[in-house]
Design goal:
By secondary structure, this protein is an alpha/beta fold. The protein contains 11 helices and 8 strands. The radius of gyration is 18 Å and the shape is globular.
Length: 290
Amino acid sequence: MCTSCINRRSMLKGCAGVVLAWTSASPLTAGDTRRTFKIGACDWSIGARQTPQALDVAKKIGLDGVQVSFGSAGVPYDLRNTDVRQLYQQKCETLGLEVASLGLAELNSIPYASDPRAEQWVADCVDVMRKMKCQMALLAFFGNGDIKGKPREQEEVIRRLKRVAPKAEEAGVILGIESWLNADEHIHILDAVGSPAVQVYYDVANMEHRGYDIYKEIRQLGRDRICQIHAKENGALLGQGKVDFPKVKEALDDIQWSGWLVIESATVPGKSMEECYQLNQKYLRSVFPT
């Protein structure tokens, strides 16, 4: 086993209590009904990007929470501002919902691998997560930010993540990489960074689209490398597309993982977004104990 793997394993053991709390996973048997899941949605997928209104929509749909967009400084509902965070917190308390995670989709146009603004946004996001008591953030690597087949950009991402990882560890939060990389490539980055605060944000539809064996990849990544999951389909409702969610559940059972399943896309012509998402969340609850 490589030295970096040993170092990572040692750190994970040393932070076991914190890591298990972060991932909502626990060392239970696969059939234990206490190992449950939460169902959320991306605010951009339910028509309320970076606005507290997303929580109202989520409540109407029947979700447990929302993945909230985190943008550049100065935008409306900038979470860097105390009053905005309090607004989200108050609405969560009133509606009985949670902020599942923050999402830095702007990294798709402002690449984390090359733009200093992106690096500052990630550092800002760590500060905001600590203040909001939100434990996860999605770092997107698509579009201009794509690092697939780009070793130089991947190495720069590693360097930047190494710089921010201690700050994230101290804050007790996790930064999740969502990209076109396969499991081996993700593991390379995670081992190189060597911090339990950097994990994979796994999107089942994206990985299936790339031709990866998503059920094998979930098992390969394991419980301690997956922070959250996008439950996604393109052009189909969940359970009616290419992703076999019962097989996803079997893979997650094998690694004893539970946590947030965040719905993205999964709409069809002829049905409203709300109708699609009500059907999607009901389907997920029929497969995953919530």
